[in-house]
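This section describes the prediction task in plain terms. A model, or a person checking by hand, is given the sequence of a single protein chain and must write out its three-dimensional structure as a string of tokens. No templates, partner chains or ligands are provided. The sample shown here is typical of the held-out split.
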Amino acid sequence: MNKNSMKDKRIGIIGAGPSGLAQIRAFEALKEQGYAMPEIICFEKQDNWGGMWNYSWRTGVGKYGEPLHGSMYKYLWSNGPKECLEFSDYSFDEHFKKPISSYPPRPVLFDYIQGRIKKSNARDYIRFDTTVRWVSFDENSKKFNVILDDLKIDKTYSEELDYLVVASGHFSTPNMPYFKGIENFPGTVMHAHDFRGADQFKDRNILLIGSSYSAEDIGVQCYKHGAKSVTLSYRSNPIGIEWPEGIKELPMVTHFEGDTAFFKDGTTEVYDAVIMCTGYQHKFPFLPDELRLKTKNNLFPDNLYKGILFNALPQLIYLGMQDQYYTFNMFDAQAWLARDFMMNRLTLPKETERRMDIDKWLDRNNKLENSLDNVDFQSDYIKDLLSLSDYPHFNVDKVAEMFKEWLQDKEENILTYRDKTYQSVVTGTMASQHHTEWMDELDDSKERYLYQGEQEEVLQDNL
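The expected answer:
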């Protein structure tokens, strides 16, 4: 390919979270090899990058009245080993200059995400406080027309683009079910999307509806920070681990009467608060019907070739739309492949052949029976992506082993699994033990996490 053949092309990226930043980083990696870059414009609704990892105290709407993107909360610690999400071109060692534990808190992971992108000129491509209002595709010119709002100056304008990358995530539009009588519940009712920390639930009896990772994590966090009791209500299957005294699982709520919840097994309990951990919708209100990805949260959404290219129109690319075991490194693998397609370094098979490949993955997805199967499925998916691009390879099988160990660790003890350590597949470094056990660590600041242990060692040496 002529290294200058792309310079007149224009690429739009919706979202500057981990997926959107991965796409920018993929282009920057090629630029370092001497390729002329297309024009890249990233539209970010928030005033900073990081997507979900960019914590905000706000709920409901943001500063300019737009639906709030973030579902991040205080005291959130990684709920999987950091070694399973490590960038293979930017290690934790390179960023922190020392070993750290396997389960860092949010500010530490956010710092790591920013570290890689700050090495590049990413900010030059990003228009912050900018939201996408509408996208159309012209069949004659084969270009997208994107209508945008600059929220800061309240100005509407449009851009014409050759490729469009949707990296807006799928954990920001809450799925909020109704239960008879809940409108008369006298306490707090919220979705996990609006949960900002466990402080307000100290000494309270809390009901979490759902059996997802968010229900598990918010439930354990509330328990850790002093909730009187935590109940998780499941629709089909309980999480099924051995909970400590003070946390329990019950089948689905049927209805409410005042502050009393009624459950399918006939149990009734009184609660102070209800948190809906009932998932999120894939929602793209800026896309017309024929371009919109329509899927539930699963490991392989239909109509996406290689899980990213919209089969009916491959110029439209979706990143990070899968249910996720792998995160940052999967977004990278997707972004590198998407970049190669956009740069004409990857030739696609015909639409019918792409459809057959999609069906092959869907068929396997439909036969998955448990979490271990899910890990193997997503591991094989990532190997498939890595085989098609020059993203620096990492030992996917070793990461899959770590995920399986992690699942076992959680089953053995939901309160102590974050104290375990793992070895990096990128550098071989063994994670250090955190200076404080997770259940006793109530401060999630970067400063305490990184430096408290060192301060204690200095104190000890001086005694």
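For orientation: Residues 177 and 278 are 8 Å apart (CA to CA).
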